[in-house]
Design brief:
Elements: H1 7-28, H2 31-44, H3 48-67, E1 71-73, H4 77-81, E2 86-90, E3 95-106, H5 111-122, H6 128-139, E4 148-153, E5 157-162, E6 165-170, H7 172-177, H8 184-195, E7 199-205, E8 208-219, H9 224-232, E9 236-241, H10 245-255, E10 259-262, H11 268-278, E11 283-285, E12 296-301, H12 311-321, E13 323-327, H13 332-366, H14 379-400
Parallel strand pairs: 2-9, 2-11, 9-10
Antiparallel strand pairs: 1-13, 3-8, 4-5, 5-6, 6-7, 7-8, 11-12, 12-13
Helix pairs in contact: 1-2, 2-13, 2-14, 3-13, 3-14, 5-6, 8-10, 11-12, 13-14
């Protein structure tokens, strides 16, 4: 837990104040007055209430982490965790089962020919959709084409040459950028499928789109619970996917998320992080989880130093500097953040009370009352007052936590 001020600074200030009190009264009165003022100030200025409240806060943080089976690491992890207001989530952890082909929509050729073209291009790809296409083509004993100059663009698609013509298989927006023309009928069908949450893979031969392959992935009902818990806690959830914008919106709506974003470039994740941080958000990004029930790692990041345009060059710095939090599930995040917030509030209250105790006991110990004819605060009285005030601070801490 981040403390309002480090205790060591207070401890260093205490003997300085004590020496100052002794020096003043040695010059003004006598050695006896100087010794009394120095010893009383040394006791009265000790940060006992604040030190005890810091120990209690650290213990409360450890207890909160243990209760939620969480592990935090990295710079300012706990300080960031209590202030989280946005969580960026990939689609993969919230799916159950393997994706499967829901529909084949050829144009100007048969379904088998469409599948054979796609499988020919996707043979060397490691993408889950590519593997499914190849498995189904193999099960149907389809004859694949011999291709040349095969090139794969991450998060976009595969391009190859088939008898002098460009064969492209991948995202529809990527195919559009490559100059592929799509008929009005296919565009209408693609919009309908995307609105129902189906992921689309386009197959183009030459300048024309020759068909679509629609994939369906089931959303786990139990996986929606962590999303709902985050939203109830006032933490905005945003879906990140490499699918189309319509597909992203449909999936985000099905999951109950506040927002959905379609990533179109390999550096889009870093760009999204930089944009959110530049707006002052404290962001938790779940980008490497493969299951919503197994342990997950969350990256915590705060305000960006780099502009969004510098995102690609800053990607490794962002990854290295990000604090990390390991949780058994996303459902534990709201309770963990709330627990740290209450501990932080309690610690701030105790810090203000400790400052009040410092003023209350240090001024008479320094000789403020003696300067107007009153007595010095005895060291024993200062010690007893500090102990009683520490007990009071402990009570206030547990009342606020």
């Amino acid at each position: 837990m981040q403390h309002p001020i480090p205790i060591r600074f207070w401890l260093l200030f205490t003997p300085v104040l004590s020496i100052a009190a002794g020096s003043v009264w040695y010059l003004l009165e006598s050695e006896e007055s100087a010794l009394l003022a120095a010893s009383a100030t040394l006791v009265a200025a000790l940060p006992l209430p604040y030190a005890v409240s810091c120990l209690l806060a650290d213990h409360a943080v450890r207890r909160t982490l243990k209760k939620n089976q969480a592990h935090a690491s990295g710079p300012n992890a706990l300080a960031l965790l209590k202030d989280i207001d946005t969580v960026l989530l990939p689609r993969r952890p919230f799916l159950i089962g393997e994706p499967h082909i829901k529909e084949l929509i050829p144009e100007g050729l048969s379904q088998s020919d469409l599948l054979a073209l796609a499988a020919s291009a996707e043979q060397e790809s490691s993408h889950p959709y590519a593997k499914i296409i190849c498995v189904i083509a193999s099960d149907r004993r389809l004859r694949l084409h011999r291709l040349s100059a095969v090139t794969e663009t991450p998060h976009a698609g595969v391009e190859a040459l088939l008898m002098g013509q460009a064969l492209r298989v991948g995202r529809l927006d990527w195919l559009e950028v490559e100059g592929v023309k799509t008929s009005a009928e296919l565009l209408t069908r693609a919009d309908q499928l995307a609105l129902h949450g189906l992921a689309l893979v386009g197959v183009a031969l030459g300048p024309r789109m020759r068909g679509l392959i629609a994939f369906e992935e089931d959303i786990s009902e139990t996986a929606k619970k962590p999303i709902a818990a985050l939203e109830r806690a006032g933490i905005q959830t945003t879906l990140l996917t490499h699918g189309s914008r319509r597909f992203a919106n449909a999936t985000g709506k099905a999951l109950g998320m506040s927002e959905a974003r379609s990533l179109t470039k390999t550096d889009s994740l870093v760009r999204e992080l930089q944009l959110y941080k530049a707006k002052g958000h404290v962001v938790a990004s779940l980008v490497d989880a493969m299951s919503s029930t197994a342990d997950i790692t969350i990256h915590l990041t705060s305000h960006a130093n780099a502009a969004p345009s510098d995102a690609s060059s800053q990607s490794k710095k962002t990854e290295d500097a990000a604090s990390r939090l390991v949780l058994p599930s996303l459902a534990a995040l709201p309770a963990l953040s709330a627990g740290l917030q209450s501990t932080s509030r309690a610690l701030r209250s105790c810090f203000r009370l400790s400052l009040a105790a410092f003023v209350l006991f240090t001024l008479p110990a320094f000789g403020l009352l003696h300067a107007v004819g009153g007595p010095f605060l005895p060291p024993v009285a200062a010690a007893l007052g500090l102990v009683f005030f520490t007990i009071f601070v402990v009570i206030i801490f547990f009342k606020n936590i």
